[in-house]
């Protein structure tokens, strides 16, 4: 359990109700050091994801990792240029996908919901371990499917950059001003009582 907020988090985020600091300390920086992540640290993230809840215990999520130069270069062509400008320094890239068909051969309506839970567990464990993560929706799923040989029954959700946080000034100037934890809307705009829209 983390017992304090990171300095940049204290400046930019404030919880309305008490929660463990890990929830606010998790954000999505873009500046990565190129230092490798040891296996015992990296795979603890996926161990955390493994224990996420899922409908009927289907565990529909899968991850495809790219750590070697060869594997990362296989990923780069399907990642949007705006993301490549910073994510190429990350020592680990991971594509998260989920199986859309359940063990009975029917459509699994919860596959994306469950994959989101697995990503959340992974991201929180990364924060707890002193790592940063940044999930990117800016990629071409059709090209990724073709390049990585992903079967049709899987939906591709995001590419996740994983590593240690770098310095803000290592980013292109237009990204430096965005390199801080973002805020959140008030709970009253998110949680409704009884019917939609009633706070």
Automatic annotation (TrEMBL):
GO molecular function: oxidoreductase activity
Domain Nitroreductase: start-end pairs: 25-83, 86-164
Pfam family, one: Nitroreductase
Keyword vocabulary terms for this entry: Oxidoreductase
SUPFAM superfamilies assigned: FMN-dependent nitroreductase-like
Tree of life domain: Bacteria
Gene3D superfamilies assigned to the protein according to its UniProt record, in alphabetical order: NADH Oxidase
Family: Belongs to the nitroreductase family.
Protein name: Nitroreductase family protein
Source organism: Brevibacillus thermoruber
């Amino acid at each position: 359990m983390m017992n304090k907020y990171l300095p940049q988090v204290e400046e930019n985020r404030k919880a309305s109700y008490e929660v463990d600091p890990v929830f606010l300390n998790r954000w999505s920086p873009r500046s990565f050091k190129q230092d490798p992540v040891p296996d015992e640290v990296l795979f603890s993230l996926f161990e955390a994801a493994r224990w996420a809840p899922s409908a009927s215990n289907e565990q529909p999520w899968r991850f495809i990792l790219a750590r070697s130069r060869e594997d990362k270069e296989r990923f780069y062509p399907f990642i949007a240029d705006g993301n490549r400008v910073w994510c190429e320094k990350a020592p680990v890239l991971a594509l998260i996908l989920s199986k859309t068909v359940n063990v009975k051969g029917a459509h699994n309506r919860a596959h994306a919901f469950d994959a989101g839970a697995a990503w959340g567990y992974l991201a929180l464990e990364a924060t707890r371990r002193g790592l940063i993560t940044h999930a990117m929706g800016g990629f071409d799923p059709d090209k990724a499917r073709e390049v990585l040989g992903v079967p049709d029954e899987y939906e591709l959700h995001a590419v996740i950059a994983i590593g240690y946080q770098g310095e803000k000034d290592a980013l292109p100037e237009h990204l430096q001003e965005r390199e801080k934890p973002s805020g959140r809307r008030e709970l009253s705009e998110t949680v409704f009582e009884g019917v939609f829209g009633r706070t």
